[in-house]
Structure formats: structure tokens, C-alpha cells
Amino acid sequence: MVPLFLSLLxxxxxxxxxxxxxxxxxxxxxxxxxxxxxxxxxxxxxxFLFLTHRQADSLYSFxxxxxxxxxxxxxxxxxxxxxxxxxxVSALAGYPVPRWGIAYFSKKRLEKIEKQIPxxxxxxxxxxxxxxxxxxxxxxxxxxxxxxxxxxxxxxxKKIKMGKSLEEGLRFFDNRLNLEEVRLVVSAIIxxxxxxxxxxxxxxxxxxxxTERKRIKGKIDALTSQGKIQGWVVGLLPLxxxxxxxxxxxxxxxxxxxxxxxxxxxxxxxLLELAGYWMIRKIVSDGEV
Length: 289
Known about the structure:
mainly alpha; flat; 85% helix; single chain
């Protein structure tokens, strides 16, 4: 009788704990999810990708289901309580994946726009020499250039048609993309338009400047990538060496997690690895443009 009573008491305690955790955590989770979906829709709208609220919410659910299935497959050999915990952690790990994917594609889109800036300047210079105005030249670029830069220039034209000045439209273009190349082009157009002079000649100079800047930046990126790869190699080499030694003779490695001195050595190795990674990362990031 007593063991049955204790089992029932334990069950009620666990059930009440789960109930109170759900009552407190569920509203916070739904608020966070609604905020994440709203941010996702805003990011997709900026990239001219339009989803409904339900579709964006389903995207998060699908990501969590996929990672939960993957975790269930990987940790299928665990005992039942730990298996449920692994499923929960795997599902939560899939929650930020859509946001990471959108951030990745947004970065790639900006890089594509950055590569299209010289073509934009070349077309602007040619159309201005042909006698077109700045607004007409931008309209021609919208029609002739591929996306995504044509989409962004189309927003500039919409701002102008809604009553904004050309300067306000260009500043909107600059603030929306937040690229150094775009900021340089917009500032040069606004200053030249205020001071007067040959804008087509200005576009030719800007094109040459940005092309040369792109060439130099490519060299720096190549050297930076070499530094990053060297950092990964240096950082992973001790782990790889330890794995090889463990496969050859486990007795050489097991003292690291079976003795106090070995545990202190592991902590020291981990701290030194993190310090080395941070130093290499700092050196490499200081060299980026």
C-alpha cells in the first residue's frame, strides 16, 4: 500500500510540475514565436519574397519537425527518458534554422547587388551621355538590369512618383541596403547634382574606382580565407591527434578523463585552444575590408 501511495504521489508531483511549467512557458514561447514570425516576414518582404503569416509559422514548425526526426534517429540508442529529452533538444535546435537561412540569403543578395553596382554605373553613364535625365536613366536601369538591383532601383522610382525628391529616393536606397559602394555612389550623385558638372564623367570615375576596389578586396579576402583555414587546422589538429592516439592505444588518452591531473590538463587544453582561436580570429578580422 505504501509503495503504491508513494508512486501516486511521485506521479502527481511530476504531473503538477509539468503543468505549471507549461502554464508559465507556453505564453512566453508563443510570444517569442509570434515575434520571430513577424521578423521573418519583414526580412522576406525586404527581399521581395512574400509569404503569409501561416506559411512563415509553418516554416518554423517544419524545421523543428525535421531536426526532431534527425535527433530521434541519431539518439535512438538512448534510454526512454533521455530519448525524450534528446527529441526536445533537437526540436528546439531546429527553431532558429529558418532565421539563419534567411540571414544567409540576405547576405548573398547584398553581395550580388554589390557586384552589380559597376554595371549600374556604366549604364547610367551611357544613358546620361545620350541625353536622358537622372530619373529616366534610373528607369532604364530598372528595365535593363537584372534583379536584385533592378528591384531596389524600382523602389527608388516609386518613392519619386509618390512625391519624394530624387535626393530622398537615393538616400532611401542607401539606408535600405547599407553598403559602402552604394553610399559612395549616392553621396557622389547628390554632391555632383548640387554643385553641377558632368555626372556621366563622374560615373565613369566611380566605376573605375569600385572595380579597382573590388580587385583589391578580392585579394584581401583570399588572404583572409587562408588565415581562417590555418586557424581551423591549428585548432583541430590536437583533437585529431588525440583521436588517433585513442584509436591506437586508449590507455594513453583515458587518464585525461579518469584522473584529476588529466581533467586539469583537458581544461588547460580547452582554454589554450579557445585563446588561440580568439587570437587568430582577431588578427584575421582586423585585416578584413
